[in-house]
Fold this sequence. Notes:
Distance between the termini of chain B: 10 Å
Oligomer: heterodimer
Number of helices of chain B: 6
Strand content of chain A: 15-25%
CATH architecture of chain B: 3-Layer(aba) Sandwich
Number of domains of chain A: 1
Strand order of the largest sheet of chain A: 1-3-4-5-6-9-10-11
Shape of chain B: globular
CATH superfamily of chain B: Class I glutamine amidotransferase (GATase) domain
Largest sheet of chain B: 8 strands, mixed
CATH class of chain B: Alpha Beta
Order of helices and strands of chain A: EEHEHEHEHHEEEHEHEHEH
Number of domains of chain B: 1
Low-confidence stretches of chain B: none
Number of strands of chain A: 11
Largest interface: A-B, 34 and 38 residues
Helix content of chain B: 10-25%
CATH superfamily of chain A: Aldolase class I
Amino acid sequence: MLTRRIIACLDVHAGRVVKGVQFVDLVDAGDPAALAARHAREGADEIVLLDITATHEGRQTLLDTVRRTAKELFVPFTVGGGIRTAQDAEQVFIAGADKISINSAALADPALIGEIGKNFGSQAVVVAIDARRAAIQLDARRDPEAADPIRNAQVYVQGGRRPAGRTVVEWAREAEERGAGEILLTSMDSDGTRAGFDCELTAAVSEAVRIPVIASGGAGTVGHFADVFTRGKADAALAASIFHFGVSSARSLKEELAQSGIPVRLPC
Amino acid sequence: MRVTVIDYKAGNLTSVLKALHYLSAETVITDSDLAPIEQAERIVLPGVGHFAATQRLDDTGITPAIRAAIARGVPFLGICVGMQWLYAGSTEAPDHAGLAHFAESCTRFPEGAEKVPHVGWNSLAPKSSSRLLAGITDGEYVYFTHSYKAPVTADTAAAAQYMEPFAAAVERGNVMGVQFHPEKSSETGLKILRNFLELPC
């Protein structure tokens, strides 16, 4: 039976994990390679490494980090952050990533999705979407559709600071048509709240496309994961700070999910 | 252990090479030179992407070289599209023939109940007689990402289930294929690759 995936996310700056994990027992809490290996060992189904270094000089450091992290990692490994061109993507793949994640570069040049997919396969291209529910429009009484915060949810760029002028569901559909292999959907409204994933928005995107949707943003309890897999129809969920949720590892998160009837891969 | 890895310019070899090196195999990569195939101790054909990419195997003369190696009994492992290529063909590229070592053809998952592609960790039901899957127990998980699949037949070494049963692994003599990615399937995947590397050649 196909299982729901728990994906561990590492935010990396200048070769070190900068947030997402504050696990007191972990001595080398800042090393991406050590953390990725640990997450994989404890049952994370995939590892995502997001580079938040915005500088050009940071690229070589990133490639070195990807190489070191990938070296003994035998679960799918996605790298995102700062990938602007097919050449950037190629370097990251050669360094050992199985998938790349693109966000604003794909919005600026949607053809990039197909370009990377042509050489590395569409399974290797994850399109990340930062989403915010729409504010209720003033003319909502005249046009009920304009009042639908899900249907009108907006795509944001620059870390959620600037609207891209696209609705989320329509952009997800276009990304799929252009050859995206998966959608990584982050709810900016939920991110950091620990009040739960945006299940309605996730379900709307998941039902609009045929490719897998990874939900991100808002997890605070094991129950939130169960919710996003059932109500939210998510195929996978990103646990950016999995150790903050009152569970000590991917393993215990999954054991609890299994008890609530969610199919998960329990590590042996 | 030396492994000849075929590069037909579809996707990325890094992960497969990394796993083979981790298991202490020495790798020789070829994208057109036939000598590493003619002298191969064992052959791995990785692959992601479109079935039509295997056209390059015909264009470079690699197809007959592989056929000859298989006839000599050289252990062969196709991964993902590399497994599908062992069949007669695929509806993904109807005009392009596979090796036809297995007579059946690959088809797309049906549209409907579930998403296509099939992406994620799914469980195996291995046959106890499989040498490739020796030591793999029923229900162990491996990582899949594909939209096309081979049917379950007498040569199926392990079936998996996604809307319908399909061949997750195929094996006849020393010719083997896996639809999943052993190089991305954690300990279970490494065990399978190790089994392949330890086949007598």
